[in-house]
């Protein structure tokens, strides 16, 4: 059997009880941390908490050479770990389909997602989110500044009066990790899109002390939101409950909230 387990958002304690039980019962445990990571826990923390050895696979080891994972699932119970929810990334769906094609039984144990946290912590209504997008580092997409596709997604959502969740890039190169910050993301959009647009930065969702801050993008670009992971949200117009939530939970200034009230 191959069990996909979402680890949740922050540390070794964020996993569900069902996920914990599956990890501890597995014969072999694999993980990938290139699509997302637990900012509050290392591999050693996970191994110590669950009493297992975790075999970390890079992107090539999941997408191009999944045979060790599949072989382990044929021989016994294998678990594949990811941060957040395990089926958010298409690479994980592909791995599950490969297993099913080989006659391997699969199951999914979900974890909390950044998208759910974005709504829960900001007070922005979850059914008013449109298409999400990812803002990459320039070196990741080989271009300058913000890709046109990111701005097009934000503008398309705003035309439909929907909020946009912007995932921020994680760059892993030769064991060096670089996490895009809310400061950097807000600055890039302020410079190449609209400096005066309302933005919301969410830092360390799932931790005991997450940070939620709302203001104009050019203001957010001057603030420090601390350790990763960060998200950026670009709201559409605001329902009065959403407006009150951003004022209370994210210290949003009254003047910019008044500019974004739904009619």
Please describe what this structure looks like.
This protein has 263 residues and is an alpha/beta fold. The protein folds into two domains: 2-109, Cobalt-precorrin-4 Transmethylase, domain 1 (3-Layer(aba) Sandwich), CATH 3.40.1010; 114-259, 2-Layer Sandwich (Methyltransferase, Cobalt-precorrin-4 Transmethylase, Domain 2). It is built from twelve helices and twelve strands. The chain has a five-stranded parallel beta sheet, sandwiched between helices. β10 (198-203) and β11 (211-216) form a beta hairpin. The longest helix is centred in the middle third of the chain and has 12 residues, at 90-101. The relative contact order is 0.14.
Offer a concise description of the structure.
The chain has helices spanning 17-25, 43-50, 59-63, 67-75, 90-101, 114-122, 138-141, 148-159, 182-192, 217-220, 240-250, 254-259; strands at residues 2-6, 28-31, 54-56, 78-82, 106-109, 133-135, 164-168, 170-173, 176-179, 198-203, 211-216, 230-234.
Q: Provide the CATH architecture of the largest domain.
A: 2-Layer Sandwich
Number of domains: 2
Q: What is the percentage of strand-forming residues?
A: 15-25%
- Which structural class is indicated by helix and strand composition? alpha/beta
Strand order of the largest sheet: 3-2-4-1-5
Largest sheet: 5 strands, parallel
The CATH class label of the largest domain is Alpha Beta
CATH-derived topology of the largest domain = Methyltransferase, Cobalt-precorrin-4 Transmethylase, Domain 2
Question: Residue share in helices?
Answer: 25-40%
- The chain-level mean pLDDT equals 94
């Amino acid at each position: 059997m191959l069990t996909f387990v979402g680890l949740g958002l922050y540390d070794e304690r964020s996993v569900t009880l069902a996920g914990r039980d599956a990890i501890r019962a597995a014969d072999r445990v694999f993980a990938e941390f290139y699509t997302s990571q637990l900012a509050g826990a290392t591999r050693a923390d996970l191994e110590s908490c669950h009493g297992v050895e975790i075999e970390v696979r890079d992107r090539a080891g999941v997408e191009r050479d999944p045979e060790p994972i599949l072989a382990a699932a044929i021989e016994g119970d294998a678990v594949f770990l990811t941060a957040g929810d395990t089926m958010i990334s298409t690479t994980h769906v592909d791995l599950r389909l490969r297993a099913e094609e080989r006659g391997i039984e699969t199951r999914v144990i979900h974890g909390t997602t950044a998208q759910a946290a974005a709504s829960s912590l900001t007070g922005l209504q979850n059914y008013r989110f449109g298409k999400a997008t990812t803002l990459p580092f320039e070196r990741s997409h080989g271009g300058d500044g913000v890709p046109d596709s990111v701005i097009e997604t934000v503008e398309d959502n705003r035309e439909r009066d929907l909020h946009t969740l912007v995932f921020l890039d994680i760059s892993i190169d030769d064991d060096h990790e670089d996490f895009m910050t809310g400061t950097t993301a807000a600055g890039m959009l302020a410079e190449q899109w609209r400096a005066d647009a309302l933005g919301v930065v969410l830092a360390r969702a799932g931790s005991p002390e997450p940070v939620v801050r709302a203001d104009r993008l050019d203001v957010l670009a001057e603030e420090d939101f601390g350790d990763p992971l960060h998200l950026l949200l670009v709201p559409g117009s605001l329902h009065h409950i959403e407006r009150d939530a951003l004022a209370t939970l994210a210290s949003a200034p009254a003047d910019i909230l008044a500019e974004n009230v739904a009619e």
